[in-house]
Amino acid sequence: MKLNRRSFLATTAATTAVVGTPMILKAQPSEYVLGASLPLTGPFATAGQLVAPAFQLAAKLFNDEGGIAGTPIRFVTEDSGYVPQNALANYQRALATEGNAMIGYFADSTGAMKLIAPELKGENARIMGSTSFASELANPETHPYQYMSGPSYQSQFDILLENIAAEGGKSVAFIYSNTEFGRDPIEHGKATAERLGIEVVLEEATKPQGADIPTHVTKLAQSGAEYCILQGYVTGVWPQLIGGARQFGLPTKFKGTFWGMEKIIADRITKEAGPFLAGYEGVMPYRYFWDREDAPRYQQYAALSKEMFAGTPLENYMSTWAIQTMCGLEIAMKAFRDTAEAGLELTADNIAEKLTNISDWDTGGFFGGPVTMESNSIRTGRVYEYDTESGLFNPKSDWLTV
Amino acid sequence: MINGNLKATYAADERVLNNSYKQAFVYGTMLALAFFAAFANEYMILIACKMGILLIAVVGVNILTGYTGLVSLGHGAFVALGAYTVTMLDNGLTGIIPNQFMFFVVVPIAIAVTALIGVLVGLPSLRVKGLYLAVATLAANFIVIFLIEQDAFAPWTGGVVGIDTPDANLLGWVLDTNREMFILISVVAFTSLLAAQNLIRTRVGRAFIAIRDRDYSAEILGISLLRYKLTSFALSAAYCGLAGAMFAFFYSRILPEQFELDLSLELVAALIVGGMGRTMGPVFGVMVIVMMPEVIKVFAAYFTGGDAASARYISPLQEIAFGLLLVFFLLKEPLGINHITDRILRAANRWPFARG
User: Which pLDDT tens digit goes with each residue over B136-177?
Assistant: First the structure.
């Protein structure tokens, strides 16, 4: 063949096509990987240490069910110390180590989600869940690959305020930690309260730890609020605030959101300081672990927990934090499996599309009924009340969807 | 006897890289960085950028603590000021200054602002020193973070929820990937290091050292403590401001919690581990402080496979191992890692003769 410019270009193009094609057609990995950053050390180590076993349970459960269309799944968990930059480094390291086998990631804070979000593009995009309920993340347009395993804090405030309105409440105080976590739903909560005809008589920001309790309680007393919603606390401050108010003789009814609804914390407070949490209510997106009669998935978890964590407290109880993580992993698995069943490659775009379109999904009992993803979140929850005698959170309302 | 190191002129004696080993080390490092930028994966680039940003700030702390002998536990505040000033200016000047020139406007202003605040924070250094000064500078950290978090400034700073940061734009070249940012950060870090090294060889630098060695002797010699202590504060704050600017361009979002006391302590720790009052001290210190936890993590992941059950127990151990390593370094080399490389270079220089 005579070599001229045209034949040279044609030969080069053909050679490139032949040599390059195998690189374009990604081989299906022998196992899929889901990475995770957890606060195993640092200020939220208590939560991280309770959530970590959920990954062991999930690995066994999902693989026993056949993984993703027969391909097993492996979890890679690392400590972030609750520092967003560490979570970003963990994500990048997992990406470098696992490559295309890694199809999803689980982060441990709102900060980490926001820091990693801009990295999720092109080849580096992965589906990402987290422990965060930050309202900003529930937006498929700005965060197409990130999802929430429950209602955002704003939706949780809506549920609480609607519950207060239903009880005939007229005034409410918002006490929140002076953090992103604490402030997230406050403006939205004010708008909802106004719409429902409830007056917000106090907005009080506190330190996230070691807050000046007497001052905040005095302000609450001066405001004369019938109800008080607490937001942005995990293990500390909220119990002390309620204790301080009870000592002061305030009749205010306290309500909390997801992170203030853990039985382990409430039980510990009751044991150490007495039954002052009696009547404390809050919104919880999921069923508690003991309420598993109508929750076949929880029954599976319970059977596995007995087998895997025998001799430890985890044998009989799964914390709300671990349930949230399990729900996040179940949503991701649903999207992975739907994508694989549709015969599509497990790319972030394909998975995100399946995830966004999850509708009328029977989760096996996490929620009151079938759920639908709306703005990459599940806007449902229920109000529970803590009973100091039984140490249980009992349902106070039906399942509410906002 | 040192061989092959004859200095025949004053100029040769005064060169920064005054022997072939130093030259080989520096040029080799530059070459390695170029290869790194081309071939390293995203994770390595991320860690390298973290190191570069921290390095610029530690070089600043070195000027103050290592060369002038003034301890500061508030330099995290200057990094915050740099980062926030760049972001606020970029947002405020969009539409007024063309994007391609923005970098060259906002970065110098951010540096100037931090230098000015540095002078204010440095004022107590005229009356107190040592631990007392350290405590006085602590206030800077708390005040700056407090102001950033205030609702009144939230439209500009983002308040506690943080604020999205712009991409660096160098005359139309938008540095929107970590790899591109690595090139910028490594050039800036290298230049900063060189500038600090040269500063110390000037009249100003020698005044700093005189103050460090005995401040009243320096004053008797005619060195104005007011002028030079405040200059030292301004310069070191300016370096931290530059580091903050790089921080803002590198990360997509900045939050006040990223600049709290931990950062100030990290800067001082990196300097002590690396070697105070030495040009390469910050480099070695930053390598240890940033890389060591990552190396420990990679090793741990290698042995455990990232399994959650092991991670629960290994993670706290990693923190302990990191702490013990720092103690080990300080016990074995109180003068910092720089001292080890000094000995190696000296041995290489004198080989095959005495290696002391």
Answer: 999 989 999 999 988 889 899 988 888 889 999 999 898 888
Residue A88 Cα distances to A1, A78, A374, B47, angstroms: 55, 11, 27, 10
pLDDT tens digits, residue range B257-305? 889 898 999 999 999 999 999 999 999 999 999 988 888 888 888 887 7
Question: Which pLDDT band holds residue B107 (cuts at 50, 70, 90)?
Answer: very high
- What is the pLDDT confidence band of residue A24, given thresholds at 50, 70 and 90? very low
**B319 in contact with A at a CB cutoff of 8 Å?**
yes
The neighbouring-strand residues paired with A76 are A35
State the pTM of this model: 0.84
B311 with A40: Cβ contact below 8 A: yes
Q: Please indicate, yes or no, whether residues A185 and A328 belong to a single structural domain of this protein.
A: no
Strands A227-231, A253-256: pairing kind: parallel
Co-location of A147 and A60 in the same domain: yes
Q: Say how far apart CA A126 and CA A102 lie, in whole Å.
A: 8
Say if the Cβ atoms of B252 and A92 lie within 8 Å: no
- A329 lies in a domain? yes
Q: Sort out which chain A residues have CB atoms less than 8 A from B41's CB and list them.
A: 96
What domain range is A325 assigned to? 32-151+293-371
B294: nearest CB among A35, A52, A89: A89
Domain ranges of chain B: 19-260
**Interchain pair A78, B301: CB under 8 A:** yes
**Which tokens hold the place of A214?**
């007497």
B316 in contact with A at a CB cutoff of 8 Å?
Answer: yes
Same-domain check for residues A184 and A232: yes
Q: Is residue B84 within 8 Å of B254, Cβ to Cβ?
A: yes
Chain A residues near any Cβ of chain B (below 8 Å): 35-36, 38, 40-41, 45, 49, 52-56, 59, 74-79, 81, 84-85, 88-90, 92-93, 95-97, 111, 114-115, 117-119, 124, 178-180, 182-184
Same domain membership, residue A338 and residue A390: no
pLDDT at A14 over 70: no
CB contact under 8 A, A53 and B50: no
From A275, A234, A229, A283, select the one nearest A252 (Cα to Cα): A229
Which residues of B are less than 8 Å from A184 in CB distance? 161
Peptide linkage before B352 cis (omega within 30 of 0): yes
| Chain B residues touching residue A59 (CB < 8 angstroms) | 308
- Number of domains into which chain A is organized: 2
